[in-house]
Amino acid sequence: MTKENLEKLLNDAAKKCGISESFSVVFSNMPVCDFQCNSCFSVGKILKINPFDLAEKIVEKIKSNECFEFAVARPGFININLTEKGVEKLAREIFEVKYPKQSEHIFIDYGGPNLGKAMHIGHMRSFNIGEALKRLYRKLGYKVTSDIFFGDWGLPLGLIMAMLEKEGTLDKYISGQLPLTIEVMNRAYPQANKLKELDSSFNARAQTLTLAFQNKTQPYYDFWKKLREVSVAEVKKVCKLLNADFDLWKGESDANDYIDTVVKIFKEKGLARQSEGALVVDVAEPGEQIPIPKKTEDEVQRYENPMPPLIIQKSNGGDLYATSDIATIYYRNKLYNPDIIQYLTDVRQSQRFVQIFRACKKSGISPSTQQLWHTAFGTMNGKDGKAFKTRSGGNVSLLELFEMVQDKVEEKLKQNNVDFDAGLKRKIANSAIKFADLSNVVEKDYIFDIDKFTSFEGKTGPYILYTACRIKSILSKTQQFDLNFNFYSKEQKNVVINLARLQQSYKSAFYERGLSSICHALFELTRAFSTFYNYEKILAEDDKGKRDIKLSLCKLTLKEIISACDTLAIEIPDKM
Predict the structure, then answer these.
(1) Given 233, 250, 267, which residue is the final one in a domain?
(2) pTM of the shown model
(3) Which residue has the higher pLDDT, 288 or 202?
(4) How many CB atoms lie within 10 A of CB 343?
(5) Could you tell me how far CA 494 lies from the centroid of its own chain?
């Protein structure tokens, strides 16, 4: 693409000047040029050469080029503009772009809801970010395997069993006399979760029933399968609303059979030690466990920059989430052998994944050549900066959030006298949620403002959809036309530059493991197209050649908006 071509031209020119330092190019935000090279400042400092003199030396070595025009500006910028030929070539490259197949296999783990509980807004970012990253990786040519990885092997399902038993209905649900539904589970779990804090005997019974299905004791193990089946079906409904899908629908229960194996590996390699009856693995690195001098002999030893050991087995012999995560990495390598394993969770789990990854590397469970990535995301908050709540102050389920956004979308569609059906309302609501979420830097918290994010103007998902539908409408009113990328006006050129920015944003998003750069570039593209649309007549253009050029720009822009939206898992309706 153009940015890489420019950097090659500049670096080849630098070598002719006997300079080995590299020169980079950025898209310009200045009206005087399309691209800029600012490297003469840093390179000039290293070589003790005046930046302006260095820029002139570099540009002198570049032969005349039909696609680019180079100019030196004080105090040491290299300004670059596309010629008409360069714009045409760039547009054609974008229209025909095909990403090469990559050799790496990425295994991405996102979603991760606990079964037995209604999915809440805390799950939303994992689904949105993970789904978009999965699609981005595939777009760029990587082999990708995705797994939702349920929390399906712990106490929540034991609590539901204990609650139904206390009500005297468990046997009827087990036998099938009563139909098991998600409503039954959504009622039983909150009641059981409160009761376990008040009644120790009830909590003990829930623990016993959990152990029963974990040991595959009948009839509890078969009933656990029923609970899992009903929960998974409900999760799939939510995934459909969010345009999320998975290659694998596995969970902690699938890792359970490998736990003894990984614990044995740590023991055999001398990496596990006893600590107050528990089995732990030291994962601290130099500088993380610096002892703080004790003031008295009896004082508990404390450390600077503490990195606690990873507990892989409780003192009572029970396993922990960390053990299950390590067993999961073990069996994923055994079955799929990925080059990269990526996890998405909120930032509160960051240290835990540092511990898990280090333990896997020390033990060889993750080979030295394998990359382990943890993408930690911030929280979505209400306008008060606190966790998003319902009007009554309760926690918001994902389904409730989606309904709230759909209600606001319906209100705005009615205000604008737009005919709509349930499908259009859902697509606009989904675009509002996803674009708002993905526009933000992954690790940062952000404020979810329903009024702002459902607006049909500004940097929002509905505005992106509106622009795409506008272009669809233009193209639907035309007969066949000849593709012609000989763009000639300033507004047309600006659209092409922003198309190139969008292409570049995919690479940025890959290395950032976030989608904000794509969202920003997509919004800037739609703004550039709107400026072109407002300045130039398209369907009313009398000159066939110019009309073909303008329609070609419409077709190219729509193609790239659709591609970017698909990467973000946003559906575009036919009209708005």
Answers:
(1) 250
(2) 0.92
(3) 202
(4) 24
(5) 29
